[in-house]
Amino acid sequence: MLLVIFPIIILISFVLYLYYKVMVWKTKDSLQQEYLNSRSKIFMGIFIFFFGINQYLFYETRLSLFIGILFLIIGVFQFRYGIKATRHYQNEYQKHRVSKN
User: What is the pTM of this model?
Assistant: First the structure.
């Protein structure tokens, strides 16, 4: 069952990453671009994290374990950075919206 769930999560997170990257190109507002870019980093972190788990479960070798651990660490850092940046730019957008009115 896990071997089916992980590829689905990987695929959904990659599609959402691409969606937010395309939205960055479409928007002209730099603050909104930064916000959308931080959202894309969240989904890239999820993608890398679950890709590392999936690769270890698929191969189950010592080398895939080390590479999987590396992917897990990179994925967690990418996810955390995306969450922090999203909160920051969300607050900045609210301040910007209040100052316009």
Answer: 0.91
